[in-house]
């Protein structure tokens, strides 16, 4: 979009007047009836609607410009960006992959000056506009390859941040660090030589063990989740290493922040305890499951694991603040249609399967069930075999 369009009063007023309307209908209703670029105005409305939950304060700021949907989809949420900015401070930081600028803006809050790099001129133009509104005079904008800029820069940075692009030339998803752009594995020594700390944001689909093989000097891995959904992986390195050994931390963001930290060696050394279901079932938060802390989680909270491949745990007595979803078992039931009909005459019950003979969708289809209500059916495998538990969430 030409920024000159956005600066038009009638363009901006149109966007504000129609924020809650259907973008497709707006295109049809006002086609040929505006002096400004209607398609660009509707794109701004659509982007703000999509960003309302993810970037609430940005979406409500009428002075900001939003990019095409792909850049918006790949940007951090305000919650995850704010989390990354904690304990980050200094004179100068560098964002190698600026994008929409959400992370750049939040990370810059603790720094006197910041440099934003972005290869896409249109996206850099939008970020230049937005960052000058949000943080006047703080940002230097560099259009081009961030690693190339770093190689020529004489500055030293307290923080270098990068969010490597995770799609290849054919738009396929990439899960190895060295296949992403920029190639931070190849640029690692350069980044270390010009910074006090490095922070990488990576896809939640990335294989953590593979990433640590590619960058063995990483000192901390954080798995960031919101509403029990893994959103991103953060890999950290600091010149002044304060960690005795590499730490993996699962972080669940919300009204309260739940953290679960462990070391890979701790998981190797821990011996899991197995047992049949008792009063409660516990499913660790998704970040803990992504981390692979299967034995450590059970040991830390004195829980029994149902089966080596069933990442559900059980206990007869609950500890406070277990980082996971807790269910009270009402009954172990026989999965027969007439039995389920007696207990759930409306057909509404939330179905979860973990290491079960079928997936939750197939189970619901077979027995004519649909998610809803406060009851749960949890299908899993214990040491005795496949079973179904009727539960309520605690």
Describe the protein in words:
There is one protein chain. The protein is of the alpha/beta class. The chain has three domains: 3-72, Orthogonal Bundle (Arc Repressor Mutant, subunit A); 75-243, Rossmann fold; 269-393. The chain is built from 17 helices and 16 strands. It has helices at 3-6, 9-17, 23-30, 38-51, 56-59, 69-74, 78-85, 102-108, 121-134, 146-152, 188-193, 208-214, 264-269, 286-291, 294-300, 337-343, 360-367; strands at residues 90-95, 111-118, 139-143, 159-162, 197-202, 220-226, 229-238, 247-253, 258-262, 280-284, 304-307, 310-315, 324-333, 350-354, 375-382, 385-393. A hairpin with a 2-residue loop joins strand 6 and strand 7 (229-238). The radius of gyration is 25 Å and the shape is flat. The mean pLDDT is 93.
Count of structural domains: 3
By CATH reckoning, the class of the largest domain would read Alpha Beta
Beta percentage is 25-35%
Mean pLDDT: 93
Number of helices: 17
The geometry reads as flat
Radius of gyration: 25 Å
Binned, the helix content reads: 25-40%
Structural class: alpha/beta
* Unreliable runs: none
Fill in the CATH topology of the largest domain.
Answer: Rossmann fold
| Strands side by side in the biggest sheet | 3-2-1-4-5-7-6-8-9
- Strand elements, count: 16
Distance between the termini: 50 Å
CATH hierarchy: architecture of the largest domain: 3-Layer(aba) Sandwich
């Amino acid at each position: 979009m030409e920024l000159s369009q956005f600066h038009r009063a009638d363009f901006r007023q149109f966007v504000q007047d129609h924020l809650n309307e259907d973008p497709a209908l707006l295109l049809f209703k006002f086609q040929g009836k505006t002096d400004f670029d209607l398609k660009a105005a509707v794109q701004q409305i659509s982007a703000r609607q999509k960003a309302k939950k993810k970037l609430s304060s940005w979406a409500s700021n009428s002075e900001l410009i939003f990019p095409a949907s792909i850049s918006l989809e790949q940007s951090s949420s305000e919650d995850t960006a704010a989390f990354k900015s904690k304990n980050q401070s200094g004179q100068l930081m560098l964002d190698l992959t600026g994008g929409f600028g959400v992370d750049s803006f939040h990370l810059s809050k603790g720094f006197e000056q910041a440099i934003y790099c972005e290869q896409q001129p249109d996206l850099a133009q939008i970020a230049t506009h937005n960052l000058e509104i949000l943080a006047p005079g703080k940002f230097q904008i560099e259009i081009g390859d961030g690693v190339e800029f770093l190689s020529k820069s004489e500055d030293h940075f307290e923080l270098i941040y990068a969010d490597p692009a995770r799609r290849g030339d054919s738009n396929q998803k990439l899960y190895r660090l060295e296949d992403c752009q920029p190639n931070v594995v190849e640029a690692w020594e350069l980044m270390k030589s010009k910074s006090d700390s490095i922070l990488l944001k990576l896809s939640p689909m990335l294989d953590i063990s593979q990433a640590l093989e590619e960058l063995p000097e990483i000192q901390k891995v954080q798995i960031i989740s919101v509403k029990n959904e893994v959103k991103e992986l953060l890999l950290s390195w600091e010149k002044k290493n304060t960690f005795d050994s590499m730490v993996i931390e699962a972080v669940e963001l919300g009204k309260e922040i739940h953290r679960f930290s462990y070391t890979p060696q701790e998981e190797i050394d821990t011996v899991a305890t197995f047992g049949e279901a008792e009063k409660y079932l516990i499913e660790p938060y998704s970040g803990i499951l992504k981390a692979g802390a299967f034995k450590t989680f059970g040991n830390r909270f004195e829980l029994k694991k149902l089966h080596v491949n069933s990442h559900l745990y059980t206990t007869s007595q609950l500890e406070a603040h277990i980082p996971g979803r807790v269910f009270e078992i009402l009954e172990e039931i026989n999965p027969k249609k007439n039995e389920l009909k007696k207990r759930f005459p409306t057909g509404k019950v939330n179905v979860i399967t973990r290491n079960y003979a079928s997936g939750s969708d197939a189970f619901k289809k077979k027995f004519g069930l649909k998610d809803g209500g406060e009851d749960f059916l949890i299908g899993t495998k214990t040491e005795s075999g496949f079973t179904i538990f009727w539960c309520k969430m605690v």
